[in-house]
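[step 3/7] fold_predict: job queued, chain A
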Amino acid sequence: MTGRARERAAGFTLVELLIALTLLGLLTTLIFGGLRLAARAWAKVDDRAIEAADQWAVEDVLRHAISAAYPAFASADPSDRTIAFDGAAERLALLAPLPQAIGAGITAQMRFFLAGGERPRMLVLGWRLDLPSAATGAPLPESQVKLLDHVRSINFEYFGPAAGGGAPMWQSQWSGRGRLPDLVRVHLERDSPSAPDWPDLLVEPRAAMNSACLFDPATLACRRIR
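[step 4/7] structure written:
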């Protein structure tokens, strides 16, 4: 066996070792780079799944509250037919059962509104039980729950006859009425790039008038009987 053959049989040359280390380094870089990309992609998918779940939960709260809104009278005055429903373009207040997570089946005064500074804003549910305080007789203090953050805007619209009568149409206000609107549409926009698109929510209240009212076709509202 020649000297060169004996050297090759004894092990790798320095050049071969450097080439092997370089290839190993490149392979490691490719593997860990791929893992980082996969982790980022997984994180994005996970964020979108969380955003979609939050959106579904908020839609469910809004749908439940609006569909189950109760047209209770706003005052004890027998001559006052106004019901406890105050709808504006960017807020909504009504009387309805609380969500399951807060107090399932318990009727409370609820309002949906945006809170926060210029950016970011959040959708908030304010609620209090429809009972006077045992100590003072005044309304109970309001509790607030954040429903959704990174909200750019929210818009409520109400479908039904105008305040002075006439054909039903979409309106930006529904307050001081003797009945609930026929439909409520909710349009919400997010300011988070990871948030999924929010399709308009269209909800029909199940009860239009208080059972203590008789329908008055002249005013398209109700005549209070107690």
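[step 5/7] annotate
Residues 50-224 form one domain.
The chain has a mean pLDDT of 78.
exit 0
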